[in-house]
Specification:
- The structure is a homotetramer of 197-residue chains.
- Chain A has nine helices and no strands.
- By secondary structure, chain A is mainly alpha-helical.
- Chain A has one domain: Tetracycline Repressor, domain 2, CATH 1.10.357.
- The longest helix of chain A has 27 residues.
- Chains in contact: A-B, C-D.
- Chains A and B meet through α1, α6, α7, α8 and α9 of A and α1, α6, α7, α8 and α9 of B.
- Chain A binds a DNA duplex (21 and 21 nucleotides) through α1 and α3.
DNA sequence: AATGAATGAGCATTCATTCAT
DNA sequence: GATGAATGAATGCTCATTCAT
C-alpha cells in the first residue's frame, strides 16, 4: 500500500463516523480536516471532492458492518444461525463503532433521498445486496430441509429488514431500546415459528 | 387570526414540505423565500430564526398526518379499526402530501439525532405521543373485551411503530413498495391473530 | 434610482477600472471588495457572480469611452470632424480615465478570446458597433458630397480601427508614444487625402 | 544537450502554446502538467517557478515566429522583399502554430502591462527588437538606393508594426479577416508608394 | 409588519509552491 | 533528476442573520 493509498484509507477511516453521525450536508471540509489533522489541500489531493470522500466513507461503514456480520456467521452452520447473525449485530449496536451512530443504510437513505442521488444509489445498492444475502440464506435453508418450502423468500427478507431497520432507527433516535428489542425478539420468533420446520 | 398569525401560518404551510423532503440542513433560507415568495426579512419578522420555522414546520407536518389518521378513525368504532387507521394512512402514503416525502418522525429523527437537539426532541415527543395513542387504543380494546388481556400493550405498540416506520422508510428510499406492503400486511395479521379474540 | 441601483452603479464604477487594468482573471473578488469597501456578500447581493460584474464593467467602460467621443462629435458638423473625434480621444488617451489603462476592446478581446466566451462576445459587439458607427459617418460624408464616392466604406473603417487599436495598444505597453502618434497622424492624413474631396 | 536541458526544452515546447492562448493568469500549473504529462515536481525541478516557465515560453514563441520570418527573408534579396516577409507571415497567421493563437507580443503585452512587470519587459524587448530589425532593413534599402531617403525610418517602422499588430489582433478576436487583410494591403501599398523609389 | 440591502463567517475548491524520498 | 504527497493561502460563492427605513 503506497503512501497515497494509506492516506486515503486514513481519511476515510477518520471521516466515515462523521458522515454516518452528522450526515453528508452536516459534515464540512473543516470537520474533516479537524478529524484527520490534515489540510484541505491534502484531502483534495487524495479525493476528487467531498462527494468522493462521502461515497467512500459509506462503503467503508458498510464493509465494517458486513464484516461484523460475517464474523458471527462464520461460526454458524445453520441457516437460522446465519440469519440470527444479523439480529445479533444490531442487538448489540451500542457497542458497534458503526451502528452506535445508527445504521448507514437508513441514515444515508433518508438524508440523500431527495438531495444526493449518488449517495441514495449507494444506500439502495447496499440495501439490495443485504436483501439478496438474506434471500440466499433462506433458499439455502429450504434446500437443506431446515426451512419450510411454503414461505415466500423475498417477502420474508423484506419483512426482516423492515423490522431491523425500523426498530434500530427508532431506538437510536428515542433512546428507548424497546423498539429495537421488541422488533428483534419478534423477528427471532418468526424465524423459529414461520421459517424453521 | 391577525395578519401576523396568517403570515406565520402561510410560511409554515409552504416550507413544511421542504423541511420534510430536504431536511433541516438541506433547506436554505433562500429555498424558503423561493417557496413563499416572501423576503428573508419577512421570515425573520415572523420567526426567531430558521430553527423556529423548522420546529413549527415539523408540528405542522405531524398535525396534518394525525389529521389524516383521525379522519379515518372517526368512522371506526372498533379498537382494531382504529389501529388499522394508521396502517391505512401509511399504505396510501404516496397520495399523502406529507408521507409522499417520507414520515417526518423518521426523516427528522435520523437527521437531527446528532446535529439538532431541539428537532430531535420534537421528533421524539411525536413518537412518544403516537406510542401513547396506540397504547390507549389497545387498552380500550382490552377493556371492551375486543382484545386479549395477555398481550403486552407497550410492546405491541413498539412493534407496530417499528413495522410501520421501517417499512415506510425502506420503501421510500428504495422505491420498492414491498418493504412497506409486507410490513403492513404482517402487522394487520398480528392485529387479527394476536390482538383480537 | 433605488439603493440597490445605486450600489450596483457604485460597484461597477469602482471595479470597472480594475477589470480594464488587470483583466478578468487578474481581478479577484477581494480586489473588488478592497476597491469598493463593501463585502463579498454585498457584491453577490447585487450581481449574480463575478462574470456579471465584469460584463457590466465592460459596458460601463465602453459607455464612458463612447461618451467622450460623442461629446467632441457634438460640436463637429463635418463628417471628417466626426471621424477625427475618435482620433482626438485616443490621442489624449493618457488623460482618459478609461484609455489610460488601454482600450477595453483590445484589452478584453485579447484576454477573453480563448478563455471567456461571454466577454469575448461583448468586446466583439462593441467592435462591431464602432465599425458601424464609422461606416455611417463615412456614408454620410459621401452623401453630403464631403467624401469621395470611390472609397470603400467598410474597408476604410476596418483600416481606421486597426490603426487606432494597434497604435494605442503598442504605445500603452511600450510607453513609446510614437506608435500611437504615427498611427493617428497617418490616419488623419488618409482622411484628408483619400476620403475628403 | 543533457537530460535536464532536454526536459526544460520539452516543457517549454508543450506549454508555450498554452501561455500564448490562455495568458499567464489563465494557464495553471495543472494545465502545464496536463500538457506535458509531467509532474509539478518535475516542472519545479527544471524551472524556478511559473514565471520562469512563462518567460521562457514567451522567448520560445518569439523565436519560432522570428524563425518563420527569417526563412522567408532568406530567399529575398531586396529590402522591400524582406519587409514583406513580415507581412507574409502574419497574412498566413491561421497556419502558423504561434500566430493562430494571436501574436505573443500583443497577447503578452496587453495582459502583463499592469500585472506582470517581467513579462511586460520581455514583450517590450521583443517589440523593440522587431522595430530595430525593420529600421535596419529600411536603412539598408536607403543605402542600396532601393528606398527614398526622405522617409523617416523610425516612424515608418512604428506605423508598420501598428498596422500589423492592430489588424492581427482585431481579426483574431472578431473572426473577421478584413481587419488584418486591409491593414496588410495598405501596408504593402505604403511600401510600394512611399518607401520604394 | 415588512422590505431591501448589507454583513461576515463559513462553504467547497484550486492555486502555486515545497520537500522528503 | 524526478516523483508523489503535502501545504496553506487564496479563490469564487452561499449561508443564516441583522437592521435602517
Amino acid at each position: 500500500m503506497g503512501k497515497a493509498e494509506r492516506t486515503k484509507e486514513f481519511i476515510i477511516q477518520k471521516t466515515a463516523p462523521l458522515f454516518n453521525k452528522k450526515g453528508y450536508a452536516g459534515t464540512s471540509l473543516t470537520d474533516m480536516t479537524d478529524a484527520t489533522g490534515l489540510t484541505k489541500g491534502s484531502v483534495y489531493g487524495n479525493f476528487e471532492d467531498k462527494d468522493d470522500v462521502a461515497l467512500a466513507a459509506f462503503d467503508y461503514n458498510m464493509n465494517k458492518l458486513i464484516g461484523q456480520v460475517r464474523e458471527i456467521q462464520a461460526s454458524e452452520r445453520s441457516a437460522a444461525g446465519k440469519l440470527k447473525a444479523f439480529i445479533s449485530v444490531y442487538r448489540n449496536g451500542a457497542e458497534s463503532p458503526v451502528l452506535q451512530d445508527g445504521c448507514p443504510i437508513i441514515n444515508t437513505g433518508t438524508e440523500a433521498d431527495d438531495t444526493h442521488p449518488q449517495l441514495k444509489e449507494k444506500a439502495n445498492e447496499a440495501l439490495a445486496r443485504w436483501h439478496k444475502s438474506i434471500s440466499a440464506i433462506i433458499q439455502q435453508g429450504k434446500m437443506h430441509g431446515e426451512f419450510r418450502e411454503n414461505v415466500n423468500t423475498v417477502e420474508f427478507a423484506s419483512l426482516m429488514i423492515s423490522l431491523i431497520e425500523g426498530g434500530s432507527a427508532l431506538s437510536k433516535m428515542s433512546g428507548d431500546g424497546n423498539y429495537l428489542t421488541k422488533s428483534l425478539d419478534h423477528l427471532e420468533m418468526l424465524i423459529s415459528t414461520q421459517l424453521m420446520k
